[in-house]
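Data card: per-record layout.
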Amino acid sequence: MSYFQHSTELPAWIGVPPNGWKADWLKWRVRLSTDRPTDEEAEALPYIANEDIESWTGKLLNPDPQPVVADSRKFQPDDVLFNKLRPYLAKVYHASFAGVCSGELLCLRGNDEVLPRYLFYVISSKAFVDAVNAETFGSKMPRADWETVGHQPLPLPPLAAQRRISTFLDKKIAQIDALLKRKRALLDRLAERRQAIITQAVTRGLNSAAPLKHNGIDWLGQIPAHWSVKRLKYISPRVTVGIVVTPAAYYADEGVLALRGLNIRPMGFNLSDIRNITSEGHGLNIKSMLQSGDLVVVRTGAPGTTAVVPEELSGSNCIDLVIIRRPLGASEQYLGWFLNSDVANTQYAMGAEGALQQHFNVETSKEVVVTLPPLSEQIDIATYIDKTIVAHDSQAKKVLQSVETLAEYRSALITAAVTGQIEGLR
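The structure for this 426-residue chain is written out next.
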């Protein structure tokens, strides 16, 4: 049961409503529509599911929804749909047409005192979404219900003010979203450029004038004539895998660090969510103990993401990662960059399994074809990529920070507008 159901105290996010504003529980001003379509309507009306709505923006990801045979509820133009399944995703849609929707979408219809567009902005505000999300039930698939959503507060200015707020937000949010789109497109281009830097270096080297040759591998293309090509199994003395059988049985609050796929970044690590396993579990899985200079490769989710084990992680263990023991006659730093290149990714994709979450096995990894310059040239290439990627990633980090700042401003602007904090809109 919602806290707000048995309390007259409004939550902090709503603040003190301006003079002339009301502040009521949503259920007293908004009706939950549960009308089901007839068979004829279900066959004719466009269907909207949760995944058709973009998080936070309220935009339809499917521009041309079609009828679908499914359990559904009817909605009409100006209804507002709110996703009750994992509400933290903030999937809210202001309908511009009549249709049917998934039962996981609450169909909300305001009374004469609530403008639909204003209602959309209130319930898509981060403050409202956070309040609902705090009261969800279910750990794996948290959801809210009408009891929870209906007992959230609805700041309610006069209709003229609602109209001013909606018009203001339509204009400002469109400007912000356009800028966010451009910045995210820039991040995509920077990511592509990053891959191009790596792939170019490990397939053509640093000397653009070097003679080239074909190796009989069509997808690899030409490489410098003095380079060789070897499969990974001939470069590393052993390619194996981390703990794959019931690793959770060894989990402990303290013990030996155990790296997982989510800890691996391209040539780096994120240890903010690291697991530990018991010393006993580590002893039983000593074959997957890591040593400095080994390479670890993600198998599932983002297959092929590779990092080189540093000295400080030597002696740790790992879970469901491919382990490439310190290579022979090759620079581990060069090999790491190669395995993060598009050339390696192409090979992983060819050998990957699983439709929902791709993964590849140890045998696939052993067969990966690697371009090998002389050792001194490998070291030069790895050093060049290290330096170039640091500068590149610094630029990408600045763009990402600006995206995050702009998204926070977008969120704060909506909350400020619907709670009467912007004086000119009251």
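Known properties of this structure: The chain has a mean pLDDT of 92. The two ends are 33 Å apart (CA to CA).

See the next section for split statistics.
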